[in-house]
Amino acid sequence: MLIENDLKLDFKDVLIRPKRSTLPSRREVDINRTFKFLHSGREWSGFPLIAANMDVTGTLAMARALNRHTALTALHKHYDVDRLVSFFRESETANVFFTMGTTEADYEKFQAVKQQVAIDKVCLDVANGYTEKFVLWIRRIRDENPDIVIMAGNVVTGDMTEALLLAGADIIKVGIGPGSVCTTRNMTGVGYPQLSAIIECADAAHGLKGQVCADGGCTVPGDICKAYGGGADFVMLGGMLAGHDECDGDIVYQERDGQQVPVAMTFYGMSSDTAMRKYSGGVAAYRASEGKTVKIPYRGPVENTMQDIMGGIRSMMTYIGAIRLKEVAKRTTFVRVTSQLNTVFGG
Ligand code: 5GP
Predict the structure, then answer these.
(1) pTM higher than 0.90 for the full model?
(2) Ligand 1 close to Cβ of residue 270 (< 6 A)
(3) Of 217, 123, 119, which is closest to residue 171 (Cα–Cα)?
(4) Beta strands in 257-338, from DSSP E residues, in sequence order
(5) Which atom number of ligand 1 is nearest to the Cα of residue 237?
(6) Sheet harboring 251-256: ordered strands across?
(7) How far is CA 88 from the centre of its chain?
(8) What is the pLDDT of residues 7-34, one digit of tens each?
(9) Beta partners for 34?
(10) Counting atoms of ligand 1 from 1, which one is nearest the CA of 240?
(11) Nearest CA to 50 among 30, 32, 28, 66?
(12) Residue 80: which residues within 8 A CB-CB, separation 6 or more?
């Protein structure tokens, strides 16, 4: 047994220190970025925010809504081939990831869609990106699809970030346990404070000219700002985008003034009982659920939330004098606001 004594931080443990700036207004800042990807050689420009590939948020309606801001959506895995083909035939699909797990059935579906329409980005998603099987899977998908952008994860350490990049991924998804409906830390004791994971994985990825996507744990726009400040190239959101018109999921109605109005929507983890009942006939005997089901207040169109998020990021950029999103990490100084004792013991 070993103990690591280095300081590890979550979003709540820091604030971003303001810096002198010559920027007159938040309207002057640019929240878009351009990336050239390591293996596929493709270029992408846009607002580097991604809706999570969860049933509730990774929807076609979400993809259409976020595309208006050139933000991305990782579609969930449960659309059938016909639905995906007709969607990918639309013009608004430049900012969409096709999501796959690691089964042959996933790959066959991908091939079936790809034979009919162009797909340029895939998200290879597993809960635990540390297995040899996953490394081999990435290598196979890369060998057979040299020009597709591959985002793969999840991991939380620099060594595995490098391993997945060297296996053929362009973008590494970072986060084990921080998700709003994730119970991995409670069920297994495994995890890594998310801001430190982002900082360490981004450092490893950037050394190899790869990118990272910070996945999970953002609850307010300020957390997204801290993720970019820590070096995240992309930020993925589940809970913050749940509860909107563009989501799938049950709606809870309440009677007000004689009318039924929506007040809440369900949101659940992809390894929750809810998801496992829906897709695999229940939780298998050898595994426990590592996700939960919650009710999120109904929040109307996602456009409102996107305006809040973009407003928060623009304002952060004026506070630290960053005219482009690319400059944010360089101009970020984090101030610790919790002591390590408080962090560990939750005081
Ligand atoms: P959020 O933005 O809600 O904090 O986190 C979203 C992320 O949580 C997802 O992108 C995914 O990585 C993770 N996640 C989603 N469902 C589950 C689950 O059931 N269990 C675990 N451990 N993580 C989940």
Answers:
(1) yes
(2) yes
(3) 123
(4) 259-268, 293-297, 334-336
(5) 2
(6) 251-256, 259-268, 293-297
(7) 21
(8) 999 999 999 999 998 887 778 899 999 9
(9) 45
(10) 2
(11) 66
(12) none
